[in-house]
Structure formats: structure tokens, C-alpha cells
Amino acid sequence: MIRPAAPADHAAIARICLLTGDRGADATGVHGDDALLADVYALPYLAGPGGFALVWERGGEALGYVLGTSDTAAFQGWFVADWWPRIGPGHVARNTAGRELIAQAADPGRTLIPQLADYPAHLHIDLLPEAQGRGAGRALIEAACALLGERGVPGVHLVAERANAGAQAFYPRVGFRAVGWDDATVTFARRLA
After folding, report:
1. Strand ranges (E), the chain
2. pTM: predicted TM-score of the whole model, two decimal places
3. Tell me, which fold does domain 2-191 have in CATH?
């Protein structure tokens, strides 16, 4: 079942983010601060401008989510001016991966892509293994695209690591196409209107 995330889901969203944060695998210990990933890639969408979060649950337990914003530019401005100055100082860079993620979070252009006018929304989707292969990913993507379409958003994008083979195969199957890439990532986008 898909439903809007509630405040009671915040801990589950942070947990899912951590358990899928290493190219779809468990990122526990990778950044030296296990709360860091969620504070960069998940929890801000529950508070920021244009933010949305939908969870996929089974038996009352959230096992996956799709979250993002309908206005990447406004969200990114809020993230670097408000969210990160409040949240970032609580994180300590204990290793190279943590230092790199903290530096990326502070980058004012981190989520801005050249095609932003055509694809102003962006999203993140993560599923625990027990939710994979059950249609949850496709259902979450379609629910997010419908929500963004109702908001009048013309397109949505996301960035996936090249090393995440599952993501690279999945996004084209749900209507996304590659619109940009570098050595480490591929930017996928989908028209909504």
C-alpha cells in the first residue's frame, strides 16, 4: 500500500535511507555517521519547499519510499540557506566518505542540472530488499509522477550512480531517459506534461 508519509514515518525513512545508501546496499558505517545520509538525502524533503514523501508499506511497516520536491531550485536554495546550516554542524566527518558527503551537502549547486527548466522536480526512491520485486518501485514512481503532474510540474529528474546496476536498469523501464552523465552518475528525466 502507498500512502503519504506521516511524522511517525521519519525514523523508518531514515532507516531505509541508511540500509539502501551504498548503491542500493547497506551503508551502515560507510560515512562514519549513520545519520548523515538521511539528513542529506531523505529528511529534508519532509520539511522543504515543494517537498513530498510517499511510503510503501506492508503490514503497517514502511519498507520503501519515494520523496523529492516539485521545485528543485527553491528546495536547493532552502537546503543551503536554512536546512544545512541548522543540521550540518551536528555531523562530524569521521572518514573520507563522510567528509566528501558533508562537502557535497554544502554545495549550492548540488541538485541543479542544466535541464532544470524542463525537469524542475527531482526525486529519490529507495526500497528495502523485502519490497523489491513486488511492483513497489514502479507503483511509487507512478504515484510520485501523478502527484507532481497534479502540481503542474512539466518534468522530473533524478541522479543514479553508474555503479548501481539495478537503478540503471530500472529507470528506463519506468519512463525515464538519460539526459546527462559523468564518470560516476547518470541523470535520468521523465516528462510529465
Report:
1. 2-4, 51-58, 61-69, 121-127, 155-161, 177-181, 185-191
2. 0.94
3. Aminopeptidase (3.40.630)
